[in-house]
Amino acid sequence: MRFDVVTLFPDMLAHAARFGVTGRALERAIWRLGLWNPRDFATDSYRTVDDRPYGGGPGMVMLGEPLRGVLVASRAAQRADGLPASRTLYLSPAGTPLTHRRVAELAAAADGVGYVLLAGRYEGVDERLLAREVDEEIAIGDFVVSGGELPALMLIDAVVRQRPGVLNDAESAAQDSFVAGLLDCPHYTRPEQDEGGRVPEVLLSGNHAAIRRWRLKQALGRTWERRPDLLRDRALSKEEQTLLAEYRRERQAEQQQQ
Q1: Which is nearest to 85 in space by CA: 2, 194, 147?
Q2: Which residues, at least 6 apart from 223, have a Cβ–Cβ distance to it below 8 Å?
Q3: Is 253 in a helix, a strand, or coil?
Q4: 46-72: pLDDT as tens digits
Q5: pTM, entire model
Q6: For residues 166 and 160, is the Cβ–Cβ distance under 8 A?
Q7: Which is catalytic among the residues 65, 176, 184, 246?
Q8: pLDDT category, 146, cuts 50, 70, 90?
Q9: Which residues pair with 139 in a beta bridge?
Q10: Which of 4, 69, 120, 245 could form a disulfide with 74 if both were Cys (CB 3.0 to 4.6 A apart)?
Q11: Is 209 helix (H, G, I), strand (E, B) or coil?
Q12: Catalytic annotation, pick one of 123, 136, 137, 184
């Protein structure tokens, strides 16, 4: 698995990629990282990579030519690294929202495809470059950040952790929020009792069937309360319908006692 990031701030990516499970996976060569600065492909002595937008308006727009040169070079580097195909992704608030399903698809295809991530800056990138060179635009949310570097890091982290051998416990990724279309259940650790209360008894029981049932009920209930839109797109099994009904009755009883 290889990611090549086109960015005006390669040191930012290089530093952040060294930490956590993503950094350990990079050290173990589970994935590889290439960093490319468009200024190195500018043709003038000022290493210009942006200019004012036609039609007026605030801000600057990234020039197409330096970016086109860096995309050609990064794709060639991926082919030289044994990847027969490259896919160019532009991190943009106008893109398709990044979901767990899309993350899983990117991870599953990563053995034969290298990903080139274009991290824009300023007001954006010349549309002609996007139309000719970009395969997909991806957004990490309905908000704007100063550049595509943080979204690129988030995408890399989300995809890399899905790969075998990255997490110490292979079950961790399988039990993440959104994997089953639900938010994750609550988690507890030592001590059993603190100023915030006591750990639910079922988690101390050693009864794995009861624990599984409790966790599923909590995941369903938490999703119903916080992200009901996820439940609208999900067909619930009979067990899940029963558990969600139990959760709702329990929550109603708690609210009546308050």
Answers
A1: 2
A2: 182, 183, 230, 231
A3: helix
A4: 999 999 999 999 999 999 999 999 999
A5: 0.89
A6: yes
A7: 176
A8: very high
A9: 97
A10: 4
A11: helix
A12: 123
